[in-house]
Specification:
Oligomer: single chain
Number of domains: 2
Number of strands: 0
CATH topology of the largest domain: Endonuclease Iii, domain 2
CATH architecture of the largest domain: Orthogonal Bundle
Radius of gyration: 19 Å
CATH superfamily of the largest domain: Helix-hairpin-Helix base-excision DNA repair enzymes (C-terminal)
Bound molecules: iron/sulfur cluster
Largest sheet: none
Structural class: mainly alpha
Strand content: under 5%
Distance between the termini: 12 Å
CATH class of the largest domain: Mainly Alpha
């Protein structure tokens, strides 16, 4: 099948920004904005939770997180425990044998960087967002999605936008990003389309409605383009319904 990327001229940056805001408006009307924040974790807890959720169903990563908290009431106890005990506590998530030592490595690294001071990551509230993200992304296994999730989803509530696989797929089909731009690289490109003065709620809404759309309409295998409110401006959808 001929793909839209084969035929559509590339959008100019100003056109992409306009399209991103048009999509935001349409999807907010469809799914309802503002979207209630789903988490109220402190930033360190959000970091651990995000790492557990990697390639894991929500209910399983939630159970792993709850078990870990029940077994070890503090993050210091997780850091200093035998790895096998941490692995057993997080067994509901995928690859607990890899995630347990990784969690402990991260907790040790954070403790070293905090040099004996409090290690709750609350200080990230005072750093410029690029610096806060860079601080987090220097931790082993932490990429742009996790750094943005820590800043946005935690009690820090800072306007950094994560891009998950649903968000990425919808954005790619709309040609907000090019066909070869991966999830990690998409973070910068998609964030650049948003007004710089947007607050955390607006950025959160943007991410959430893209994600909802990927879950409820723009499916991976058979997107429901016929009932999609974005069809008029979606090259991928247009190529499927013609
Ligand atoms: S028109 Fe189809 S491909 Fe485009 S966003 Fe909607 S569901 Fe996805």
């Amino acid at each position: 099948m001929k793909t839209p990327a084969d035929s559509s001229p590339e959008l100019l940056p100003v056109e992409r920004r306009e399209l991103a805001l048009w999509v935001h408006g349409r999807l907010c009307a469809e799914y309802g904005c503002p979207v209630a924040f789903f988490a109220t974790k402190d930033p360190l807890s959000e970091l651990i939770s995000s790492l557990l959720s990697h390639r894991t169903r929500n209910q399983d990563s939630h159970r792993a997180y709850q078990q870990l908290r029940a077994r070890f009431p503090t993050w210091e106890e997780v850091r200093d425990a035998p790895a096998a005990e941490v692995e057993a506590a997080i067994s509901p998530c995928t690859w607990p044998e890899q995630k347990a030592p990784r969690l402990q490595q991260i907790l040790r690294e954070i403790a070293a960087r905090c040099a004996g001071g409090p290690c709750d990551l609350a200080f990230l509230a005072d750093l410029p967002i690029p610096e806060a993200r860079a601080w987090l992304e220097q931790l082993p296994g932490v990429g742009p999605k996790t750094s943005a999730a820590v800043l946005l989803f935690s009690t820090l509530r800072r306007p950094a936008m994560p891009v998950d696989s649903h968000h990425h797929r919808v954005a790619q089909r709309l040609e907000l990003i090019g066909p070869k731009v991966g999830e990690a690289a998409a973070h910068k490109q998609l964030a650049a389309l948003l007004p710089p003065d947007w607050d955390a709620q607006q950025v959160y809404d943007h991410h959430e409605v893209f994600m909802f759309h990927g879950q409820k309409c723009c499916y991976f295998h058979t997107p429901a383009c016929g009932r999609c409110p974005l069809l008029a401006r979606c090259p991928f959808g247009q190529s499927r319904v013609q």
